[in-house]
Amino acid sequence: MKLPVLLCVLFLGAAALVEGAVIRGTVYDLSLDRVSDVLIEVNSTPPQRILSSDGAYELELGPGSYALKAYRQDRSGRTWSAEEPLLVSADGTFLLDLILYPELESEDDLSEQDPSQLESAFGNGSPAWIPWLVVAVLLASGGVFVVRRRKAPVPSLPAELTHVCTILRKEGGRMTQKELRQKLPYSEAKVSLLLADLESRGLVKRIRKGRANILVLEG
User: Fold this and answer.
1) 4 — alpha (psi -120 to 50), left (phi > 0) or beta?
2) Residue 132 and residue 141: Cα distance in Å, rounded?
3) Looking at the predicted structure, is the pLDDT value of residue 25 above 80?
4) What is the pLDDT of residues 142-156, one digit of tens each?
């Protein structure tokens, strides 16, 4: 009777060794500074939630597919978030850092400006020629801006940014961030930094749609 019991104990011990993995990491902002007071959650069973005061987190997960999310609200009330898919297929300790991005309003939530507000801007007693004068001034200043912008030298892009723009252009100027990452030999953090650089140059626009980031080529 002792042999079956011993085999059972050994089997349970071996199963425990491959039961799951430890996922740990740090949450950063776009400047790669560690953030504080961030909520990390994963859709395990039961769900796990951690409120980290210094941006660091550690989770224990069994084999399976998960979605790791992080949320933080700044002083202005704007929500910053990050989401990464996880596939746990082996035991061990793995490092996964997250970079927070601002959540964008959906296009359905953007309302058009009331035309009556444009009329009231000039006042009921204003001379009829004043609106035309304002339009002429705006057009003239816009023309000067266009001329100066065309004459300004166009800065050359680094090879990595040029490669990202080339991929977007081949895809018709629009694709998801996940699709772009699959075409690049970089980590998620590296791709996020490249996109942030392109956004700051006005070459790429990133639109949040549900769980995905839609990338639109501007240039």
Assistant:
1) alpha
2) 14
3) yes
4) 554 444 444 444 467
Three-class secondary structure of residue 152 per DSSP: coil
User: Quick one: three-class SS letters along 95-119?
Assistant: ECCEECEECCCCHHHCCCCCHHHHH
The answer to whether the beta carbons of residues 168 and 217 sit under 8 Å apart is yes
In order of their start, the domains of the chain are 21-102 (2.60.40.1120), 159-217 (1.10.10.10)
C-alpha to C-alpha distance for 144 and 142, rounded to whole angstroms: 5
CA angle in degrees (0–180, nearest 5) for 107-108-111: 90
Among the listed residues 8, 58, 55, 57, the one whose alpha carbon sits nearest the alpha carbon of residue 31: 55
pLDDT at 42: 95
Summary mean pLDDT of the chain: 77
